[in-house]
Amino acid sequence: MIHDFDVIIIGASLAGSAVAIHLAQHGISAALIDQHTFPRRKACGEGLSQVGVTELRHLGLSDSINALSHSPFSGYTLWFPTRRSSRGDLPINLSSADTFGIGIERYLLDQLLADAATSVGTVTPFFGEKVREVVTEQNTFSVELAERAISAPLLVLACGTNIPIASKLGFECRTIREHRFGASVTVNCALPHQLNTVQIIAESGYQIFVTPVSKTGLNLSVLADKQSSSRIRLNSLASHWIQVSSLLSLSGEIVSSPSASSPVNNACRAHRVPGMFLVGDSYEVLDPIGGMGMSHALVSARLASLAIKQIVHDRVLYAESLRRYVEAHERATKPLRGFTRLVQFMLTNRSNRGLTTFAKRIGIALPIAKAVHSGRATLTTACARELLNVIGRTTNGR
Ligand SMILES: Cc1cc2nc3c(=O)[nH]c(=O)nc-3n(C[C@H](O)[C@H](O)[C@H](O)COP(=O)(O)OP(=O)(O)OC[C@H]3O[C@@H](n4cnc5c(N)ncnc54)[C@H](O)[C@@H]3O)c2cc1C
């Protein structure tokens, strides 16, 4: 059967566009579909770890990133305002002289990747086109758009937490823990020099994240459980800005309309459909609380592209190439997942633990955070393993 493309990619955000760029480097043709046109805003804390920055280098985008407005950050500052006012606690600092990553607006970053993907001759964009149906028949995927259908022997799902498409295709999708929702805005604000860490303010049922994204701007995001999101009206972020600006002594104004997310912690992990690869949030959602979702999207995109290249050029069978992808993905994702658990643990369990024990754990949290963000995490030392085990048990981790 003659196909229109070697691969169809649904979703042209970080994961989808990165797959398209990697495939183009191997001369593999791809249709890149997204319901939106770029640039567009997306709910995100916009903190990209060094792991993700390294992936952008693999994509040949280092110079382009340097030319875009962005702001390096050197760690995290965790606030517990309620306890602070009652006990006079200082915030907990997980920061060092090293760069942990950069804050960069998704409005700019996603457009950069989509532009880079579509500037290559082998990638055909279908932007502003929503996928209505995917039909699988005789080793062919037929994807129905508004006015046409296109076909390919391989399909990449990079449509984030779009569960309807994945479920229709037979994937087992589930929610990890209770549903959580997110929303974010950009704030125009003269940033003090010392604000070079991501500030995380932990409240009961929700967390506020403040990420510097340029010399004059920051991202304000909120993540909340279902109950809190209706109580605090997630879409009205102005009240959170008032809370943050007084806590951090900042002044500025919200300059974008809020973007909100569907539940952030849906996931489908089982690959059941021959010829299909999941990447980014479609494969696995790392709760945004750890700020590792973007890096994961880029890492999984590179690994999936390698697997696809093996099928197209090296004649490796799908089942074998999928096995290699899943194994490589597990190795690469383990530290990122561990860091997510670490942050979750610190934000949600602090009040239940003896402070001394907690402080000891924080003592080894910084080396772990540094190692994970630099992409050099091995997590082999006994204490790091013990810490992650505790976190895994406490958060019912996967
Ligand atoms: C509030 C919040 C804060 C976050 N903070 C951070 C952070 O600080 N750092 C970090 O690394 N991560 C963060 N994340 C996570 C991060 O945003 C995601 O992990 C990342 O965007 C995943 O990228 P992706 O390409 O897999 O999916 P997405 O970015 O979700 O992209 C999916 C794409 O698929 C398209 N699509 C979906 N359905 C269809 C369809 N039917 N037809 C056509 N196109 C379709 C969508 O339009 C979209 O462009 C945060 C998330 C939230 C919600």
Explain the overall architecture.
The protein is globular and about 65 Å long. It folds into 3 domains: 182 residues, 3-Layer(bba) Sandwich (FAD/NAD(P)-binding domain), CATH 3.50.50; 114 residues, 2-Layer Sandwich (D-Amino Acid Oxidase, Chain A, domain 2); 60 residues, no CATH class. The chain has 12 helices and 21 strands. The longest helix is centred in the last third of the chain and has 32 residues. A hairpin with a 2-residue loop joins strand 16 and strand 17. With 398 residues, the protein is of the alpha+beta class. Helices cover 39% and strands 25% of the residues. Strands 5, 6, 14, 15, 16, 17, 18 and 19 form an 8-stranded mixed sheet that branches. A 5-stranded parallel sheet has the order 8-2-1-12-21, with helices on one face. Bound molecules: flavin-adenine dinucleotide. The site of flavin-adenine dinucleotide has 40 residues, from helix 1, strand 2, strand 3, strand 14 and strand 17.
